[in-house]
Amino acid sequence: MLTFTLRRLALFLFTMMVLTLLSFSLSFLFPGDTVINHSGQINATATDLAKLNEAYQMDKNIFRQYSAYLQHIINGDFGQSMASQSPISNEIIELLPATIELSLVALLIAMLVGIPLGFIAAINHNKTSDNAILSFAMIGYSIPVFWLGLLAILLFSIGLGWLPSSGKISLLFEIEFVTGIQFIDILLSDSPYKWQAFNNASAHIILPACVIALAPATIFIRLSRAAMIEVLATSYIRAARAKGLNFRQIIFRHAIRNALIQIIRHVGLQFANLVTLAMVTEVIFSWPGIGRWLIESISQRDYTAIQSGLLALSCFIFIVHILTDFIYAALNPLARGNNHGS
Amino acid sequence: MNLLDIRNLSIALDTPTGRVLAVDRVSLSIKEGEFRGLVGESGSGKSLLAQAIIGVLQDKWHVDADRFHWRGIDLLRLTIDERRALLCRDIAMIFQEPMSCLDPTTLIGEQLSETIDTSQLSGYFWQRRKQRKEAVIKLLHKVGIKKHSQCINSYPHQLTEAICQRVMIAIALAGRPILLIADEPTAAMESTNQGQIFRLLANLNQLKNMSILLISHDLENLTHWTSTITVMYSGQFVEAGSTEKIFNKPMHPYTRALVDSSTKANLQLPTKSRLMTLPGSIPILQHLPIGCRLGPRCPRAQQKCVSAPKVSNFHGHKVSCHYPLLRDPGKKEAVKHKTGKGIN
Q1: What's the pTM value of the predicted model, to 2 decimals?
Q2: What was the pLDDT predicted at B287?
Q3: What are A135-182's pLDDT values in tens digits?
Q4: pLDDT, tens digit, for every residue of B76-128?
Q5: What is the CATH class of A92-336?
Q6: What is the ipTM of this complex?
Q7: Residue A341 scores a pLDDT above 50
Q8: End-to-end C-alpha distance for chain A, whole angstroms
Q9: What are the CA-CA distances from residue A147 to residues A143, A150, A221, A269, B312 (Å)?
Q10: What is the largest CA-CA distance in chain A?
Q11: Which residues in chain B are contacts of A239 at CB distance < 8 A?
Q12: Shortest Cα distance from B99 to chain A (angstroms)?
């Protein structure tokens, strides 16, 4: 298990290296002066520029420049936003947790809905319920997320008035910023209206999370259906039947775990897709997350923000990827002893 | 009394070109305490027959039989669930490739303990856990695994093929079965391990009076262990009788060819001459010959063989052939009289 952890850590470090290399090279590729792209100080005076050139070692060779850039990033200095002239690291710390919260809730909904539906479809293979679930998956996968978001607002917020259409929480509640993840902050706060705030925040998150979750849920339906059909055809399931176990015992003790192993590997992959969907949805539901911020930065040509936002977001996706790898290893005894990198 | 009595069991598969009989009217009976072998080439429907008996065939196979009795109970009258409940209690099965028949993500101990029925345990529910563990250890000892704690805490991929097969046997024994069906239990195993597994099965048969149906393609090896043998060819019943009779005085041309093709029979052959074999190979499922399926390969085939022969009984030695090999001229007449069939 230790080697497994070390291997994942090494993978993480090297991937981060490549990612920083990419964002470093972006500064050269974006229009404008490289050092200004690095730091985001568009209104710098001549003395400031000299200082920045010194700090980013722009007069040295490219390797020294890269290591200077790395040093800045490790110290948490992403430069400042070209548009607002405030430090990007502060903005990321404020906005990234909201995206994490939204995408994790969406992932949870997608898994909780998609995987059991897929299992039910596989158990009733080639029957009406299987076909119904598959057609639902097909339709759900084909609906574009921005259209679905607008429809959801139209129906549930405007038409029925059940759920709020924008924001994280009603402005009436004042929640102190601790972790940035709304639910944890609410639980940590000592406001007398804690539970009202909690309900309000849940009402706010349901609609965007469901909109994001639909497409990944349909993918999980197909994945889990295929995995379950495969597992049910294996000889150990036949042997379990010959042992005299009943159907429920076979499904719950043997089939589900083996099918989950095959699905868990794909969860990490699907997560990147899900974050992309979350970025679009954040714009529609004006969710104060990093996705909306990033899209705004793109339209404002805020190169420093684009660079650092990409770095932060991909780092987050990669961490989730590694976490799913660990869950996979915990579920699958065959993966733990595996010495080949995968 | 017969433990298991099957008459004319057929297994069919629907294909785009119509229904194909993979197993064609095979009869099989097993007495209490019998060690019966079931021999046939690969593709002759032995495994299908075994899986049909225990009821774990996939849905695409259609099984029907004229008679299917288990200890005097007519199973054809029971519903599928009742039948499975009855059979799973009394019959256990071990498969070829034991490694793939154990759940790769569950510990051996768990897989063993879930087969132990609660009715076998006495005492209150807080004692059950301990009792279950003791029962598991006892089972492992029974199949000759001494390092029980190590075995309980390992996953199937951490054990060798032979140990896995022992675990499978232990799982099969957990239900205290009356009949154990072993479907090529030693396929892809080294010969020393093969011997161990067969000895274990023979011990169970002799000491516990457990009936065993051993499926194999190796007639010569089977003769060391079994008391009676049934031979199948391409889904048809060929011959059944005591091991000694089958091996020494086979009546069916196919059994004759099987015995002749064994290494022991070929010892006297001069060097660099061809070994004795039947010409041709087993027909594929899509192109089965009509009548006796051995027909095109049979050295004794005549025109009559295009219709399937009836089973004739020679003092408990059953053979399904129009022209059985008979050595004793005195018997010939009796048979002719009894079955009313032409004998050459």
Answers
A1: 0.79
A2: 82
A3: 999 998 999 888 998 999 899 988 888 888 888 887 777 777 778 788
A4: 888 877 888 888 888 888 888 888 888 888 888 888 888 887 777 777 777 78
A5: mainly alpha
A6: 0.74
A7: no
A8: 15
A9: 7, 5, 22, 24, 76
A10: 83
A11: 93, 95, 101-102, 168, 171
A12: 9
Amino acid found at B305: C
The pLDDT tens digits of the residues spanning B232-270 come to 888 888 888 888 888 888 888 888 888 888 777 677 777
Average pLDDT for A217-234: 91
Domain ranges of chain B: 2-234, 247-267+276-339
According to DSSP H, which parts of B55-184 are helical?
80-90, 98-101, 108-113, 125-142, 148-152, 161-174
- Largest CA-CA distance found in chain B, in angstroms, rounded: 72
The answer to whether A261 faces chain B, any CB pair under 8 Å, is yes
- Spell out the domain ranges in chain A: 2-74, 92-336
pLDDT tens by residue, A284-330? 988 888 888 888 888 988 888 888 888 888 888 888 888 888 888 88
Single out the residue of B117, B225, B105 nearest to residue B173, CA to CA.
Answer: B117
Average pLDDT, chain B: 82
- Vertex A172, ends A167 and A178: CA angle to 5°? 70
Contact B101 A331 (CB under 8 A): no
Provide the residue type at A86 as one letter.
Answer: S
Convert B38-70 to b/e letters by CB count within 10 Å (16 or more is b): bbbbebbbbbbbbbbbbbbbeeeeebebeebbb
- Pairwise CA distance, residues A227 & A98, whole Å: 33
Flag whether residue B97 sits within 8 Å of chain A, measured between CB atoms: yes
Helix (H, G, I), strand (E, B) or coil at A287: coil
Interface test mutation site (partner A, options B59, B94, B101, B176, max chain A beta carbons within 10 A)? B101
Closest CA to A18 of A331, A314, A326: A314
**CATH (one of 3.10.450.540, 3.40.50.300, 3.40.50.1370, 3.20.20.10) for B2-234:** 3.40.50.300
